[in-house]
Amino acid sequence: MKAAEAVLRANDRDGYTVPAQGLYPFQWLWDSGFAALGWAVLDEERAWLELERLFLGQWESGFLPHIVFHQEDSGYFPGPEVWGVRRDPPTSGITQPPFLAPVVLHLVRRSSERGLERARWFYPHLLAFHRFLHRHRDPGGSGLVAVLHPWETGMDNSPAWDLPLKRVPRRPFALETRRDIQHVPQEERPRQEDYERYLYLVSLFRELGYDPDACFRESPFRVVDVGFNALLLFADEALGELAWLLGEDPAEPKGWFQKGVLALEALWDEEAGLYRSLDLHTGERIPRDTSAGFLPLLLPLSSSRVGRLVATFRAWAGEARYLFPSAHPLAPYFEPRRYWRGPVWAPINWLLAWGLIRHGFLEEAARLREDLIALVEGSGFCEYYHPLTGKGLGGRGFSWTAAIYLAWIG
Ligand code: 9WN
Predict the structure, then answer these.
(1) Section 293-316 average pLDDT
(2) For residue 223, what is the enclosing H or E element?
(3) Looking at residue 115, what is its pLDDT?
(4) Coil, strand or helix at 391
(5) How far is residue 405's CA from residue 169's CA, in Å, rounded to a whole number?
(6) What is the per-residue pLDDT for 258?
(7) How far is it, in rounded angstroms, from Cα 124 to Cα 248?
(8) Structural Rg of the chain based on CA atoms
(9) Mean pLDDT of the chain
(10) CA-395 nearest atom, ligand 1
(11) Ligand 1, from 77, 151, 225: best to mutate by most atoms within 8 Å of Cβ?
């Protein structure tokens, strides 16, 4: 507990938490949601502050960027000069999984009347962000939203993006420009080819002035990510509950939630026994099995659907020493050391456990918790872990791993 606290305190930058010193020296959207869960165990006030700092980066349109560059630091690429977003503080121009309303609700539930007062400030800001996503990322009103960049999914080099990324041209740049591989071995990071495509998309959105509708129209990468959508719908549900607690009208978030939960069924793949993401350029589900496909467990599902999903979960569990691998452990694209292509990630364990508990699968949820605790106690607070050996990978002294550990044992 003390060691986890020390990680969060070392990564604290006067009110916001950097994911890891050196590797990620700014504030990231979904990382801050998880960091707040850890801060809540230590210092409730600090948890609220984390989220307030994040909203300093919110745009007038309601859009919430995935990075807020609160201070200068040349240790990360691409930095603010590449994004070219002229704001104070500067930000990136893409978003990340909107995992914030459930965190606010969690903080309200843990705290007293005062928590509800804090939530009152967040409500319109969260509503504006969700409205942005439902309007500009789902212009046809399907109920599900699109992501336009693999970084928006938070699972950057997931095998699920291999096929849709092929449509994205490469924007060659020198390997030395990258900072990540100065901090972490290259075999644990996305490949250079992927980075060149990531950078192409950034320059395209910049040229389009980050106009949301133009970006949606023009992006060669347009995907309905099952993970992003499960988290958005989970957050819509939480937003509806917050509205109710605050005496606001919950109709809008409730409407998004109900429509989205029905629409999500289009992502179910009966043969795989798992949800899969949809490539909007082809209209086809992407034939890759990743941990994101289990995130709909966070939502109300029929018991037969949950039963099948849990059977798939157990099959994966039989193939990995440590849960939960980010890609199918028997698939040809499984790479147990490379980032989102196999390793175990603390926040995903936590989200999956939350979903399993919702549906009464307490044993599976307990295994996710025990495995994460064993990984941390064996290898320290790493960014991710090898699912077969338990070796720690990626950045060290990692905030979300420490925060989830605290939330679980605190
Ligand atoms: C790009 C900060 C972030 C996480 C993402 C993770 C990684 C960034 C990168 O680090 O992405 O946003 O440069 O690799 O994939 O989930 O939020 O921890």
Answers:
(1) 98
(2) strand 223-224
(3) 92
(4) coil
(5) 40
(6) 98
(7) 10
(8) 20
(9) 98
(10) 18
(11) 151
Q: How far is ligand 1, taken at its centre, from the CA of residue 307, in Å?
A: 32
The encoded tokens of residue 194 equal 């992927």
Q: For residue 113, what pLDDT is reported?
A: 79
Q: Which atom of ligand 1 is nearest to the CA of 96?
A: 17
Q: Distance (Å, rounded) from C-alpha 361 to C-alpha 382?
A: 27
What value does the mean pLDDT take over residues 8-25?
98
Read off the pLDDT band of 64 (50, 70, 90). Answer: very high
Give the domains, in start order, of the chain with CATH numbers.
2-409 (1.50.10.10)
> At residue 114, does pLDDT exceed 90?
no
| Best residue among 28, 77, 179, 183 to mutate for probing ligand 1, ranked by most atoms within 8 Å of CB | 28
**Per-residue pLDDT at 112 exceeds 80:** no
In the chain the first and final C-alpha atoms are separated, in Å, by 7
pLDDT reported for residue 351: 98
Q: Which atom of ligand 1 is nearest to the CA of 383?
A: 18
Q: Distance between CA atoms of 404 and 352, rounded to whole angstroms?
A: 12
| HSE (side-chain half, CA atoms, 13 Å) at 386 | 11
CB 346 within 8 A of CB 356: no
Residue nearest to ligand 1 atom 1, measured at CA:
151
Contact 31 CB / ligand 1 (< 6 Å): yes
pLDDT at 207 over 90: yes
C-alpha to C-alpha distance for 360 and 379, rounded to whole angstroms: 30
Q: How confident is the model at residue 300 (pLDDT cuts 50, 70, 90)?
A: very high
Alpha-carbon gap, residue 234 to 162, rounded angstroms: 26
